[in-house]
Specification:
Number of strands: 12
Radius of gyration: 18 Å
Shape: globular
Order of helices and strands: HHEEEHHEHEHEHEHEEEEEH
Helix content: 10-25%
Oligomer: single chain
Distance between the termini: 11 Å
């Protein structure tokens, strides 16, 4: 839908089209003790995990730690690609964003990936930690990173827990959708291959975008996040983060195909939230479960739901992992380099799906 204008009044709070069956419950290892320390991560990653409780810490959604150096340019984007800054405004406000333009456009429309950072992070930091720009350059994709300013949230979190930011054509979803459409207007983007992904608060925001804009995004990737509508205010957000938040009935029908990553020792966003997202994903059919281990790293359980030959969801449970981007680079914050590689697997999942 390149160039399509937002239709005022077409609102849907955490809802998607009717008619999709609820998916089967994915097999998952029982939740671990929420106070279990991070194991297997690098020393740098362990330093970044600081558990704090209380309402004053909610906006940080666990992404707290010592100040880190700014990543170098070569850690953010590959040589030959351009990483430019732009901005977008609408009635809901103003947001800056960074855009990766791959070095080769191949003369035809390319996929676009929308990446939503976690709290305290920036587009540069998130790009360096996930290395999505490098994976996208290799595959020929654009990547856009909307930036949440401190004026919107003191810890630069997407406000996933506010009802006004959980609906179509309003609040932060309208800004993220507006940025997506602006990039589609300004560049050669394939409107059938536009995707959204995020970490933590950004993962919760990605779940909202998938639920409220299924006509814009072909698939979603949610890492250590929460389902759309899992909270409606600060107290319910704390509850959802600590023990899991159920998505409302309206969000349990169809959303876009979704890949979920969550560590089973995440003491910031309870692993039950990954289950909730997987259960609210569009699809009917058969679930298959595979287990593996990254050499020298984490074991994982991967549950794939297939409907009529099409994969509609994947749920990756990373055993022993805490609240961090799986397989990420220590050049960015809140990463666990002991894998599996969430960036590579998300991009694979995305490119296997086209809208319509």
């Amino acid at each position: 839908m390149a160039g399509a204008a937002t239709r005022i009044g077409e609102r849907a709070r955490c809802a998607a089209p009717d008619g999709a069956a609820q998916v089967r419950t994915a097999e998952r290892t029982a939740a671990q003790d929420s106070d279990m320390p991070l194991r297997g991560a690098s020393a740098l990653a362990r330093k970044r995990f600081v558990r704090r409780d209380g309402l004053r810490d909610l906006p940080g959604i666990g992404l707290r730690g010592p100040a880190l150096r700014m990543p170098a340019a070569h850690e953010i984007a590959p040589e030959g690609a351009r990483f430019i800054q732009r901005s977008f405004s609408n009635a809901a406000g103003h947001r800056s964003y960074k855009l990766l333009i791959p070095s080769r456009t191949h003369g035809h429309p390319l996929p676009l990936i929308v990446m939503l950072h976690g709290c305290t992070q920036s587009p540069d930091d998130f790009a360096a930690g996930t290395r999505m720009n490098f994976a996208a350059e290799a595959q020929g994709c654009f990547v856009v990173y909307p930036e949440q300013p401190s004026g919107a949230n003191p810890s630069r979190c997407w406000n996933w827990f506010r009802t006004g930011d959980q609906q179509r054509d309003g609040g932060e979803p309208s800004l993220i959708a507006g940025i997506t459409r602006q990039v589609m207007q300004d560049h050669a983007i394939d409107p059938k291959r536009v995707y959204v992904a995020g970490l933590s608060a950004g993962g919760a925001a990605a779940a909202i975008m998938a639920a409220t804009y299924p006509d814009l995004y072909a698939a979603a990737g949610i890492h250590s996040g929460l389902a759309c509508g899992a909270a409606r205010d600060l107290p319910s957000a704390l509850m959802a983060m600590r023990q899991g938040g159920a998505a409302p009935a309206a969000a349990r029908s169809a959303v876009v195909p979704t890949i979920v990553f969550h560590g089973d020792r995440d003491t910031t966003v309870h692993p039950a939230n990954g289950d909730q997202i997987a259960q609210s994903t569009n699809g009917r059919g058969t679930a298959s479960v595979a287990r593996g281990r990254v050499p020298g790293g984490h074991a994982y359980t991967r549950t794939v739901l297939t409907d009529r030959g099409q994969v509609t969801s994947e749920h990756w449970i990373i055993h022993g992992a805490a609240h961090a981007w799986s397989g990420g680079s220590p050049a960015g914050s809140y990463t666990d380099p002991n894998g599996p590689d969430a960036t590579r697997e998300m991009l694979r999942f995305f490119l296997a799906h086209a809208r319509g």
